[in-house]
Amino acid sequence: MSRYLLRRLLLSVPVLLGISVVLFSILALAPGDPFGELALNPNIPPEVRLNLRKQFGLDDPLGLRYLRWLSAMLGGDWGYSFVSRIPVQMLIRQRLPTTLFVLGSAYVMALLIALPVGLLSAVKPYSVFDQIATTLAFVGYSLPTFFTGLLFILVFSISLGWLPFIYSSTIEATGIAWVVEHLRQGAMPIAVLGLFEAASLTRFVRASMLEVIPQDFITTARAKGLPERRIVLKHALRNALIPVVTVMALQIPTIFTGAVITEQIFRVPGIGSLLIASIESTDTPVVMAITFVYATLVILFNLIADVVYGFLDPRITYG
Question: Where in the chain is the domain with CATH 1.10.3720.10?
Fold first, then answer.
């Protein structure tokens, strides 16, 4: 196992380097000037704008700028935001807790819905429950998060007035009231992301269980007189989760991208809204840091999925 992990980690290095080259080149060649607003301000002399461009090395050759960024990144320096004028690490640390709270809660919600619903649908295929669950899963997966988010705002905020539709980062309450207020304003973005992910995972859990249940080892377990509950939960579900783990591992990074739109709709002060604002203002260091972190998460969770395979299926060995 240790040799396998070391080999995979070593292979991840050139992959991340290639991703960083592509991302940096695209952002560097994209139109826009981070200091373009200064040129429109008559109170700021042109030499100030030129000095800023020279200070940040924006006029240097692309290769030199990339090597400078890479050496700084390896040293733990993610650069300074052109807009906020503060270190990128500090900017991300300010937004990260809110994003982790919303995304973590949404994914837990998705798992709590998808696993039992997908399991029951596969155990009783083509039943009334299965048909309703499958229909809702297709509808939930087909509706984009921006549509669901706007629908939630119309129903729960405007029509019923139960929940706030703007996520506030400054809550004056303390104690239990602070927790309740956080849950109230996070309920809709969590529900939007959680239901979307649950709809996708439910389909995979059901399909995987339907492939495992007719297999010979399940028939043998039934012939031995084992309880049906034990057969389904211990034997069938454990084997069915192997392909589902792959989907789950790949969807954890993609839920961050889904949060970009959801955070914009509900004005959640998280990483997603920071990414959109940085793209609009051509804040290259912030955009580069966030997109590179996303790419690293994809590779990391792929590795985690491969490791989890060994725990789910003892037949899988790592050479």
Answer: 94-312
The per-residue pLDDT for range 262-273, each reduced to its tens digit, is 888 888 888 888
Share of the chain above pLDDT 90, in %: 3
What CATH number does the domain located at 94-312 have? 1.10.3720.10
For 198-211, the DSSP string reads HHHHHHHHHHHHHH
Residues 6+ apart with CB under 8 A from 97: none
Q: How far is CA 136 from CA 129, 189, 196, in A?
A: 11, 19, 11
Host H or E run for residue 41:
none
Q: State the Cα–Cα distance between residues 28 and 97, nearest whole angstrom.
A: 29
Task: State pLDDT tens for residues 66-108.
Answer: 888 888 888 888 888 877 778 888 888 888 888 888 888 888 8
* Nearest Cα residue to 247 out of 190, 198, 195: 198
What pLDDT score was predicted for residue 113?
Answer: 92
Put simply, whether the predicted model's pTM sits higher than 0.85 gets the answer no
DSSP H helices in the chain: 2-29, 36-40, 46-55, 62-74, 88-123, 128-142, 145-152, 176-212, 216-223, 228-230, 237-266, 271-280, 284-312
Q: Residue with structure tokens 């706007």?
A: 150
pLDDT, mean of residues 218-241: 82
